[in-house]
């Protein structure tokens, strides 16, 4: 029955000291690195979603458990309708809805304070694939967005959310605060800041 299989030789781990993490690529990420290095690609990792009918504090707990600051909001039929961020829940949005609708916090649902997909901006996957981190960073800076969706299209013309690019992911990859980069006056200044941040992390 097991003739086509064979046991593998097991290894000794006494000399192994390092753990590989997803951020480790062996190369230093810079503003000129391909933009897809800072894109969360949903062909590689599943998007973290939440139903529009979930109470907002439950949604926040889901973010914490999944180590994300944004959830993709879906209907009962699993159709994408928007996003909700930790800032939306922890900020004034919930309070404004409570006051305007005369409801308690326990009655505030994700759909009440989420950002509808019509209000979101995106890049195409081709744009990301042919651009650099610096291009996307300046796009975020000029738009004022914290997240940009990445959309692709099937051979049948069906558009899909392929991934997301966030300011926080760029900041983490470059090891420099995004707000610090915002203060730079030129691209050369930004490169200098990124280079200094890289040296400090060594």
UniProtKB/TrEMBL annotation:
SUPFAM superfamilies: CBS-domain pair. Gene3D superfamilies: CBS-domain (3.10.580.10). This is CBS domain-containing protein. Keywords: CBS domain. Residues 39-100, 115-180 form the CBS domain.
């Amino acid at each position: 029955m097991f003739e086509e299989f064979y046991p593998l030789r097991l290894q000794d781990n006494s000399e192994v000291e390092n753990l590989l993490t997803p951020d480790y690529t062996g190369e230093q990420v810079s503003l000129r690195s391909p933009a897809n290095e800072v894109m969360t690609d949903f062909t590689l990792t599943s998007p973290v979603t939440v139903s529009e009918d979930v109470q907002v504090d439950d949604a926040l707990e889901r973010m914490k458990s999944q180590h994300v600051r944004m959830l993709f909001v879906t209907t009962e039929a699993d159709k994408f309708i928007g996003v909700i961020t930790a800032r939306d829940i922890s900020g004034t949005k919930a309070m404004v809805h409570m006051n305007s609708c005369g409801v308690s916090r326990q009655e505030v649902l994700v759909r009440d304070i989420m950002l509808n997909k019509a209000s979101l901006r995106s890049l195409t996957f081709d744009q990301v694939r042919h651009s650099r981190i610096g291009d996307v960073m300046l796009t975020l800076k000029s738009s004022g967005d914290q997240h940009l969706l990445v959309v692709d299209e099937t051979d049948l013309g069906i558009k899909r959310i392929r991934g997301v690019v966030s300011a926080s992911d760029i900041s983490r990859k470059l090891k420099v605060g995004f707000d610090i980069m915002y203060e730079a006056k030129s691209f050369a200044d930004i490169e200098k800041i990124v280079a200094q941040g890289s040296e400090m992390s060594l």
